[in-house]
Amino acid sequence: MSVSISLSWLGKDEYFLMLFMKLTKEEELSSYEYSYLLSCAITFLKEYSKDKRTSTNFEFSYFIILKYSLKTNDYTPLFDLSTNFGFYPISQYIIDNKLISQNNLQSFLIDNQLERFKYQDITETFEQNKFRKEMISTEEQDNSYIAPTSFGKSSLIIDVIENLNLNKIAIIVPTKSLLTQTYRMVSQAFTKEKVIFHDEMYDNEDEFIAVFTQERALRLLKNYAIFFDALIIDEAHNLFDSSSRSILLSRLIRKNKIRNTNSKVFYFSPLITDSNNLQTDDRQEIYERKIELNIKEPDIFEYRLDGNSYLYNRFLNDFYPIGEQGTFLDYILRNKCNKNFLYLRTPKKVEELTFMLSEELHYAENDELKALSKILSKNVHDDFYCVDYVKKGLLYLHGKLPDLVKEYLEYKFKTINELKYIVANSVILEGVNLPVDNLYIMNTFSLKGKELTNLIGRVNRLNEVFSGSEHSLNKLIPKVHFVNTEHFNRKNSNMSKKIELLKSRFFPDEIKNPTLKSYDFEKHEEFIENTTSIEGRLKEEKVLNRATEIKEREEFLVNLSHIPENKFRAAFIEAGLFSVYRNPDAVIELIRERKDRLVSLGNWSEIDVITKVFHVFIEDLDDEFLELSVARLKNEKARNFYNAFVNNMHMFTLKEHINSIVKYFYSIKDKKSGREFYIGPSYGEVAKDTGNANTSGRLVYLNLSNKSQKELVNLALVKLKIESDFVSYTLNQYVSLLEELELITEDEYNKFIYGTSTKRNTEFTKLGLTGSLIHKLENDKQLQNIEIDHLGHVKANTEFKDYLLRQDDLMQFEVNKYLPI
Fold first, then answer.
1. Residue 238 host element (H or E)
2. How far is CA 191 from the centre of its chain?
3. For the segment 654-702, what is each residue's pLDDT rounded down to a tens digit?
4. What's the Rg (C-alpha) of the chain?
5. Residue 777 burial by CB count (10 A; 0-12/13-18/19+): exposed, middle or buried?
6. Three-class SS string for 86-142?
7. pTM for the whole thing?
């Protein structure tokens, strides 16, 4: 009996439907009714035992038994299921908390069995234990570990490294937050190994462990004598995307494999359906370990525009009415838990929702919240929105906040119990483990089945279920609310179709990266051949042409860039500048011709670095630019702004830099005319006729004349992040290429990138410390009390530790984030 027939048959049984609805809604049932449902669960478990491919049989049975045990406090069925089907953390929890009565012999036998699945301080599931052992002992070259969030990925990475017995190992992470987090973890685990997390920290070592982004790893591979013996790819599903960083990741894997055909690759992800889709060439065979059974089964609610809410049952794809709930804010507050995460997509909407929620909350009389408010006021700004919000137990995060502010607020949300609400977007989805026990999804744009599953997986991580300060098996049923509003979603908002994606846990991989073997070029060709829509054909041709260009360009970089006559073009592409121009090949030739002529100018050494970028890459290229952010540097005022901005990045404290930008805003606001300010699509409110196709008619400007002081301050935080990212990810690439082309000196490069040419100070900057913090430590004569030893580990003496304890909380956080002392 297949699961589809079984559920189809049960779905016609009115009695079962009535009982299943009552069970799902956690209503009271009689002993006979529970017996009936448990009998159904046993029947489906028997079917699963016959054919383990029918995982929905198990999920259905587990749902019934889990709901029953939590409602009735009769944990015997849940204990039996967990013990027999490998959910051993549940079994151990039930024993440890004496939730069932056992005779001594039974306790001894089961405890003895569970002992084999204890690892470090946790009890593993059967699949988790099996695949961990397979991953650390594998001799295969390419391996993947696919598991839901919180299934021990980080500790497994450490175990894999310990057992590799290889010399040059690189962990590749997608974000700066994960970079520092992973560096700390690796540095503490491997105290006698060389550990680096910046390409310039490499000093010709034969053995090292590197924690890199793909950009830093590729910069190291510019030295053709270097290769990695093993690559560990974190969040490997990013390979499927079409973004430039996804292309860089596949380039890294391919380049390394060519240099070292025996290199190993380990892929880690919660979101991959078929690991073969990760292949970059025909020779790869990826050995997959996938945890199929999820120990958590969320309750999914939908709040609709009419004020009514419904509980979704994915097994029957049905919505059960709960009742009228008032406004959406009433609903959020009525269904709050201890730690609530409200998800929205865009930064501006995140801030709007936080303001609306703050109006409904009262100030909490809590010393920790008051202290946090003072720290934010002192170090960020008095008018930063969160200075007031945190006193109500509320904060917000998005990718347009400065990194230090974002990471500090994440840390405080984890450590201050009275911070009850966090409003955020996808910025917190990769690698940041927050204690969330309630999720409100306010917008589903761009969220497909996998993304929804990953988002939901952030609620009640397993360590919080089994060993957290408020551990409880009830956390195995996370609360997830889809909240329809026209303001935060769309007109006639209806998320039911999105919710129905969750009826299955199987979602095909979407391969958008044309450098992967599984990318389907033929689908574009077939669409172009068969469509009758001219507009559709042109759009598809554009996609195909771009994919073909990327494929050809990457083939050139991977296979031909080492040839001497190709090195100039390769350097230009590797700097990420190919997509900036309409006709990049012509621009490359122009730059090749002009670079020698410019260096021969008598005053070249006296010109500042940004002006050199302008003369080499931008001057006289009026119609060539695709990116407005770069084209802006044709304007001398823009170049002057960035010269000041880069200097301030290295010298100013966060608050000083914000005040500097606010002052700049006022210089525009106080003009009699021309008070529109370019901010970009995330915060733009007005359009302006600029004569540029990239901006004319688009809402990418702000009229600063109608902005209050508080609004200007918070826009300054956004501006600071936007421009910091432009400097880090675009302008620095130009400067790096200038150095590679020997158009600037090493001192010029270091001063621009790191703010100093002093070698000792650049070492700390490469670790991640801000220039202002380094200046403070230098002024306080504390740099002499910390050192980076020959293995890349940071050490501090007692004097520095005592000094740090006297500093405020934000400075302690910043130091401890980078320096595991």
1. none
2. 27
3. 999 999 999 999 998 888 777 788 888 888 888 877 665 555 567 888 8
4. 28
5. buried
6. CCHHHHHHHHHCCCCCCCHHHHHHHHHHHHCCEECCEECCHHHHHHHHHHHHCCCCE
7. 0.94
